[in-house]
Amino acid sequence: MKYVELNNGVKMPILGYGVFQIPDQEECERCVLDAIEVGYRLIDTAQAYGNEEAVGKAIKKCSIPREELYITTKVWISNAGYEKTKDSIEESLAKLQLDYLDLVLIHQPFNDYYGTYRAMEELYKEGKIKAIGVSNFYPDRLIDLIQFNEVVPAVNQVETHPFNQQIKAQEIMKKYGVQIQAWAPFAEGKNNLFGDETLKSIGNRYNKSNAQVALRYLIQRGVAVIPKSVHKERMIQNIDVFDFELTEEDMNLIADLDTGESLFFSHYDPQTVEYLTNLVR
Question: Where is the active site (predicted)?
Answer without folding.
Answer: 49 (proton donor)
